[in-house]
Every structure is written in C-alpha cells, then in structure tokens.
Amino acid sequence: MNSWLQLGQLEIRERQGGTCEANNGFCPDWIADNLHRYVDPFLQHIFLTVVSVAIGFVIAFALALIAHRKRWLLPPLSASAQILYAIPSVALFLLLLPITGRGTVTGLVALVSYTLIFIFVNVTAGLEAVPKESVDAARGMGLTERQLLWRVEVPLALPEIFAGLRIATTTTVGLAALAFFAGAGGLGEEINADKGFQSNIAVAGALAIGLALVLDLLILIVQWLMTPWRRAAAA
Amino acid sequence: MAQGGGRMSLVLANVLNDFGGAIEFLFKQQPSQLDPNTEVGGISEMLDLTLKHLALSASAVAIGTAVAIPLGLYLGHHRKGEFAAINASNVGRAIPTLVLLTVFIAYIGVGFVPIMLSLALLALPPVLTNTWVAVTQVERDSVDAARGMGMTDTEIIRQVELPLSLPTIFAGIRVAAVNVVATATIAPLGSVDSLGTPIISGNVYGADGRLGAAIAVSVLTLAVSGALAALQRAVTPEGLKLGAGEPQRRRLPNLRRREAATS
After folding, report:
1. Is residue B39 classed as helix, strand or coil in its secondary structure?
2. CA separation (Å) from B109 to A198, B83, B190, B191, B254?
3. Which of B18, B99, B100 to mutate to test the interface with A (most CBs of A within 10 A)?
4. CA nearest neighbour of B198 among B14, B26, B15, B56
5. For residue B148, is pLDDT > 80?
6. Which CATH number fits domain A38-228: 1.10.3720.10, 2.40.30.10, 2.40.30.20, 3.30.70.920?
7. Mean pLDDT of A163-168
C-alpha cells in the first residue's frame, strides 16, 4: 500500500548542463542528448492506447450489435457508458487501485471504460442511419438477418463507426497521459517527473500530441481503404 | 474451491477496508503520515478544498465561455470560420489535459492565474463549436422574418439566434464544465489547491486521503454534470419545448449525437 504513496513525492531528476538547463529553459542540446529517455514511455503510451481502444472496440461493438437487435437494451447500455465516462480519469485510476492493484492492467481497465461511450454511440447511430430502402432491398434479395447485418448494415455504418473510433483514439491518447496515477507509466510519468522543465514538457507533449494526430491519420487511411464505394461515388 | 473462496473474501475485505478508510478520511480529521502533529482530512478541510475546486473551475468556465459564445455567435451569424469552429473541438481533444496544464506551468508559471487560464482554454472549444453549429442551424425563415421586421444584425443575433441556440450552447457549456471540473483535479501540480491536493500530495495525506479525494472528485463531477443538465432544461425557451419547435426537434437527434460524442 505504501508503494504508491511515493507518487506524490517531489522527484527532482538529475539534470546536468549549462545555464539553459539550470533555468528550466527550452534547450535543443539537452533534448538531442536525452531523447532516448522518452523511447520506453512513448512505447508504453502507444501500448496503452492501442490495446485499450482495441478491447474497447470489441466490447462496445458487440454491445451495440446486441442493442441493435434488442432495442430495450439501448437506454440502459448508453446510460451506463455515460456514467462511466463522467467519472474523472484521475479519480478512476485511483479508485481501481484497491481492486486491481498498481500497474498496466489498472491503466487499461480505466482507459477501456472511457472508449466505450464513443464507439457504442457511433455504432448504434450508424446502424440506425442505414436507409430503410437498402435494408428492404437486401431482404427482398433473400439475405438472412446475419447476411443483412454484415453485408449491408455494418458496411453502410462504417463512416460513423470510424468517426467513433477516431474520437475514442485521440481521447485515449490524452487520458493515457494520466495513467501514471495508476502506475501504468506512459508519457505522463515523464511529464510529471519534471513538469517545470520546458525542454521536458516540449518533448513529451509533442510526442503525445503527435501520437494522437498520427493514429488519427492511420484510422482515416484504413477507413479510406475499407470504403471504396464512397470514393467511387465521390469521383 | 474453499481456498479460492477464502482468498476471494480476503481480497474483498481488503477492498472494503481501503474504501472504508477513504470515506472515514472525508469525515474525520486524522494525523498526517508525514508529520503526526499536522491534522489532515475531515469535513472542514474537504469542504474548503471543494470550494477552491469550484472557484477555480467556475472562473475558468466563465472566461472560456465569455470568449467562446460571442466568437461563435459572430462567426455563425456571418457563416464564417466553419473549419476553425468545427475543428476547435477535435484539436482540443488531441491535446492531453496534462500537456495543456504543464505547458502553462513550464512556460508561464505556477499559481492561480496560469492554471485557471489553461483550464479556460480547455473550456473554450466545446462551447465555440456548439455555439457555431447552433447558430448556423437556426431556421433561415426565422432570421429572414426578423430582418423583414427591420431588425439589425445585432438585434437578430441577440433576440433570435441566441435564444434559439441556447439549449445547444448550454450543452457545450456542460461538456466544458465537466471537463474542467475533472481536470482541476491536477491543478495542485501547478501549486493551486483543489480536491486533487490529497491526490498530488499523497505523502502528506496518505493512502486514505488519496482514495477519499478520488471519491470526492467523482461525486463532485457527477453533481456538476447533473446540476447543469437540469439548468440546460431550464434555459430551453418554452417555444422549443412545445410543438412550436417541431422543425427544430427534427434536428435534435443529430445534435444530441454530437453532444454525446464530445462529452
């Protein structure tokens, strides 16, 4: 129990160098010499984000498909996801500590719970927005319910689904910066360790924002590849 | 089997013990772990921290809103800045709150003003986006009718577009306020007291204080969210609640989705 108390203690990192470092300034030389410190936290940040979004996607997508069939499940499911999302992330990381202990697992549990709302809301909205004519036409062609879902409804809902995935991913990159409260590491730990040092904030901050933008772009590319009919329509 | 059950109940007992200690911290003063002569926790300290938390959050939301609403009304009325207004929320989301806060700490300084301004910046995008969207969705007919009655642009914005946009603008304020109240938890990183103080100064407040503060912050955020939802219903003009708002209502599912997606 005492181990996680150390988190709040001031940690002064050993910093050698000239006046720039002493003044907590923005020092390109220090950054060039110390970039290697950020590799592991950055990889952990990517791991936390990708794994939580992947697990969150599986859970929320499955729940959305169930709610699509059994409509009465929709209000309670979306209300639960809303409430989960409303709990501040720092608090949730700490509330989970007595249950799941300190470490990556706790970070993942909290991050997964925040991705649910975006994916669930967008998948259900996307399925809802599928034109009735398309569904009727598919039924008329003799598609079974399962074929209807996977060949017509899900493909037509893809733009909304991808939109939810993008929001979930950028949000998770931001929340993962606070996962150090659960002892799960990530770029937030580096930021917190030396938060008055401009060089440190610049590097770790740029890596976090850059990660959000790159992942967003990657999802956009996957969406582009997976919806060729939209390109044909636009051309 | 029996052993597994025993271990399970032991874990459960530990969890209950942790949460029990945390709740006791909220209500009863106790000696600090760091210095036994200092008393921490208890209702009076938690109330004091809650008020500081709310004061910080309220100032930030007020400033963010005071900038975002006029800007959104102006841009929306003239159909300008669509790209900026719509993408403000997306850009805001891509900047981690911890980064936003520590950029202010490292580059401007610690203390109430820099931290409050960083939170105000966090509050700005959802209000701006919602204001812009709401104004541009006001029925063209309503604006034309107002113009036909001889209203100036300013009058149209204040007497037609603003009232009709209020529910959506308020949804944006609610999103902003919940984000700010949640993020004010890490304000003590910048030497500003809030309910996050027992979390950040874990060595002074101990494990119970840390968990107790986490519970308090969660309750406060849910309360603020609920209170603003009630207020949002209260500011909805009567005309929109009744059948008069039929055309508006047709668009609401879309807006609600946007609101849910940004909250």
Report:
1. strand
2. 11, 32, 8, 10, 41
3. B99
4. B26
5. yes
6. 1.10.3720.10
7. 94
